[in-house]
Amino acid sequence: MSDQPEAPGTPVAPVKAFEPPYYVAVFTTVRSQDQSGYGETSARMEQLVRDVPGFLGMDHAQTPGGLGITVGYFRDADALTEWRTNAEHRAAQRRGQAEWYQSYTLHVARVERSQGFTRT
Question: b/e string for 31-58 if b means 16 or more Cβ within 10 A?
Answer without folding.
Answer: beeeeeebeebbeebbebbeebebbbeb
